[in-house]
Amino acid sequence: MKQIIFTDKAPAPIGPYSQAVLSGNTLYTSGQIAINPTNGELVLDNIEAETKQVMENMKAVLAAADMTFDHVVKTTIFITDMNDFARINAVYGSYFTESNAPARETVQVSVLPKQVNVEISMTAVK
Q: Per-residue pLDDT tens for 36-47?
């Protein structure tokens, strides 16, 4: 059985998908981009600010499922320029400790929704 997870503290889906789906004790999130949920504007000032907004959106989705970054077991990061990897990684890494860091892959893609530079999805287990 699945439960749809939704919070107004993260951007509403911009297509036919849910922010996250909880199945048993496993949460599968959709990718988040840097949309500020309070005004709907993209945060594209720099790659650090963009990544921070993505992670804050993901934090809100996790919280809506009564989870935190400690529950995250796997992440996928999509970026449009691998040259931004170190800067994205620095912000992303600040949300985890070395002892609770999830498995992860980072993939460069040619384009992301709304022409953003980074999108992140997660799987978490309670």
A: 999 999 999 999
Question: Residue 104 in 3-state DSSP?
Answer: strand
pTM beyond 0.85: the answer is yes
CATH number of the domain that 50 lies in?
3.30.1330.40
For 21-68, give the DSSP string.
EEETTEEEEPPB-SB-TTT--B--SSHHHHHHHHHHHHHHHHHHTT--
pLDDT 10s digits, 50-75? 999 999 999 999 999 999 999 999 99
| φ, ψ for residue 52, nearest 5 deg | -60, -45
Q: Which domain holds residue 78?
A: 2-125
Question: Quick check: 27 and 72 in contact, CB under 8 A?
Answer: no
